[in-house]
């Protein structure tokens, strides 16, 4: 039993879409929150929105920040879907729009639909919203965006007060970390990554943003797979690429060392992931009766085609005979007509003179004879050339022209005959050699195998010699290249090269100019390629026989496997670790392999240049921020490096972050990295905790303050942005 029979690699199914929990409309509003002034906490993320009451333990609503508005042709009505409901209909999904540009709200018409959905799902059925609102916003949110959001909440929903805060700082608060003790928040979300230093508050003037997040990783994975499988039978969607990122990626502790692991044929199978995409299997195989009927129809169709071809040949023969009869009648009419009238008739038939008419009649007779022979199944007669051996002085002008044609036709005929004979002789010789070799293999297998191995080694040495010669010829200063250039120059010269040339006379300067080198490479390219391909073809013939008859000769021993890293992986797959590709396996056609992409995609957070982003990675950014503070503040910050955000859930991120930071921090530094207890929901939980305190009401902007100071007005607090003109 082979290794392939014992080991069946695991195949992972791609997720069509994420599993969503439906958001049920609340029915306890009147008993739970009516007339109680409980704040509404909205974690307004660019990827997902989480909503709940301030005294809830976890958010009541959690949905994608998307809105779809389209016209349903079945019911002939406009349909508006918000959040997870858009995934219930393909048309809605294709028309989905976000209210965000990056991580900033810019489409407030869409935002209004989202707020309508929020208040409806919370069960609020009053004429206005009687609850204060605490909403998260990104770091350094533009004043214009905040003004329009406040205008929407106060003017459309008549809320009593509004307060804004940064989601990353709320997550820091939810994990019981003290602002006074200091720290650093590294928050990686859907579109961006922020690094915020904390000394009593968020020091926003030293905060850095990296334009890399979960959406960036998804787009990068999608592009990598599209480049890797350009002819994949189905189109990979963004949600499917997101599933690959969430389920199969991890952060390498040493990226370049891990890349070598992927190039190692012994460790590659354990890291490779086979992903099965959905497909519709082909129809069931036909029964014997259906196959018989299909074969009968095929034969009937072939018979009809033959009949049609026979009719066409008969019709063609009739047309040729009619043409021949017309030409003969035209020839015979000369005796009964005046010469001028007869010449006029010739010109009407586009014939210049009588000689051309005779030539046409002769050709038509030959065509008629060939058509009759083909119709009757008679082989063509051997062509004759009667004028070839006749001296020119015994021929008239027309016969001499015909003789030239016959000489050319005879030469062509003889060339074709020689080619046929050469092909037939080569075929017989090859068959004879194959029979002799087969007989020798049967009678003396060991001797035949040793002879085959010796021939293979000799041929392998020839191929290697050609490879070395090719490398030498690429170097214009090498001895082999110089000799060949001189040979080409001598052949191209109008005067033959003298054996001994005196100094200063006819000095050969070919090769001293760069244009000469270009000419040389162009001349030698095709010849070298042809010679190398011929030798490789012979080598592969030997390898094919050795693979068939020598059990010690394995696929990885072939020349291609040893000299091509890509091919070595292919041969590794054929050894039984991964199923070999079967073109008749319809399911296998819809499989793809995710391997090096598993570490390349998340590595962009540490090396943004991988995705073409001219920014520093998260480790360099943290190091730069720490160096901006004095010694005491530095010690405080590195004791609490807090990591939050949905994008930080990638396995291996925290160990890599700790290892990389230790390499740039002092050896005696007390480094502590803290991961959020729930990187996704902690921002909402921290906001809800703060909304229960008196500070929330102190820093919330009331409706009266909004009307007096405008929508851009805000009260600065430790969780929020600061006002910047």
UniProtKB/TrEMBL annotation:
Transmembrane segments: none annotated. GO terms for cellular component: nucleus. Residues 284-315 form a coiled coil. Residues 411-430 have a biased composition (Basic and acidic residues). Its main location: nucleus. The lineage of its organism: Eukaryota, Fungi, Fungi incertae sedis, Mucoromycota, Glomeromycotina. One of its GO terms (biological process) is DNA damage response. SUPFAM superfamilies: Actin-like ATPase domain. Belongs to the actin family. InterPro entries: Actin, ATPase_NBD. The keyword Plastid does not apply. Keywords: Coiled coil, DNA damage, Nucleus, Transcription, Transcription regulation. Residues 398-438, 489-511 are annotated as: Disordered. It comes from Rhizophagus irregularis. Gene3D superfamilies: 3.30.420.40, Actin, Chain A, domain 4. This is Actin-like ATPase domain-containing protein. It is found in: Nucleus.
